[in-house]
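Hi everyone, sorry if this is the wrong subforum. Our group has a chain we'd like a structural model of before ordering constructs, and none of us has done structure prediction before. Sequence below.
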Amino acid sequence: MTKAERRKTAKRSRPRRKRSGGSRLRSWWGLLLGGLLVVVVYVAVFYHFFVSPLSFRWRAIYGEPDYPTGYDVMGIDVSHHQNRIDWDKLRNSQVAGHPLRFVIVKATEGTTLIDENFNDNFYRARENDLVRGAYHFYIPDRDIERQAEFYLRQVHLEVGDLPPILDIEKRGSKSLREFQRDVLAWLQIVQSVYGQAPIIYTSYKFREDYLNTPAFDAYPLWIAHYYEKHLKYQGQWVLWQYTDCGKVEGIRGYVDFNIFNGDLKALHDLTLQPSDEEPEEEPME
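Answer:
Right subforum, don't worry. Here is the predicted structure as tokens:
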């Protein structure tokens, strides 16, 4: 037998190695980790699209909203998320047995985004004899002066409208001092144009954590605090967004419900007022 034949015979006769317990264990762990990764991805996607939106999360925990008692002036806030609104039905709708009195409309966001339904919603609110307001959604990493200028360029408030509104929900990566400085800059720039203090919209916790300084006490507060029959916030406030899953005629799906902290006269007193300056008389020819 040649050397080559002997080598082939030796290879054929050599027993196959059995997989060790360590190899089997590594394979098992690999399958387990792969399965866990799939579950984590699924949960993350599910949370992002279904649980993260506030309405789903709160409804899942608390069910349908209870309406705070002791308030008569009711309103809603809307954006493109409400799609097409039937204003004929909405103007005659009621919230907790009270007529709808005001509608606050999303106008702008950052330095470039205009809500696609803003112009129609803003016009139709006034057309249907509802007190209206327009808010700007603050983006932390955008130039604050440009954000104020963008709002002023796109939104033209009139006498009888609510003052300008700044929606603040995110602090971003800025230091607390920088963040507060920027928020105050937006408020001051817009106030210098309208001559009336803008309204701050934010959540109860965000107000307590990031805007709880005397500088912000000068601005009317619209506070979001859901599923509470009594607002826990101890400071002054004018508007309370108490649920994001209200149902009202004229809007398909859910909408934010708000109450005004006062009577109807006080609501109108909060709105932009005519200038004290008398118009100049035209010279007689």
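For your construct planning: Residues 21-51 form the longest helix (31 residues). The two ends are 133 Å apart (CA to CA).
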